[in-house]
Amino acid sequence: MMLGRTIDQLTPGDYAEVAKTVSEADVYLFAGLTGDFNPAHINEEYAQQTFFKTRIAHGVLLAGFISAAIGMKLPGPGTIYIRQELNFLAPVHIGDTITARVEVSQIDTEKNRVVLKTTCTSQEGVLVLDGEALVSPPKKPKE
Hints:
The chain is an alpha+beta fold. The chain has four helices and five strands; from the N terminus they run E-H-H-H-H-E-E-E-E. The protein has a five-stranded antiparallel β-sheet, with helices on one face.
């Protein structure tokens, strides 16, 4: 069984990234999974009348990219997600490539808790989401 990094293997400043190009299928699948069929996401004719002028991806879809970075890379498999704060800063359009980054900012060894700075950035370098996560990294397997 593959486990991520334990608390004693983490240092403030450690980071990991996951990049994904948001496809039309991603937006429709997310809408189907969550039931969020807001026309801003799925109806181009409607979306053209909005402030954004075209469809935008669900903001919480980006949170999924952060979850992937936490669960698969840092701290990695076995990590328990406790809390996530999200600030949505700019729209994400179909075709945008988003890089989700998680970076260790605080470590509480006694409680086995790690605070991560979480961000999503577009291919143009625009910060589209920022926030903070609290996680519990995997513990060492008992020998």
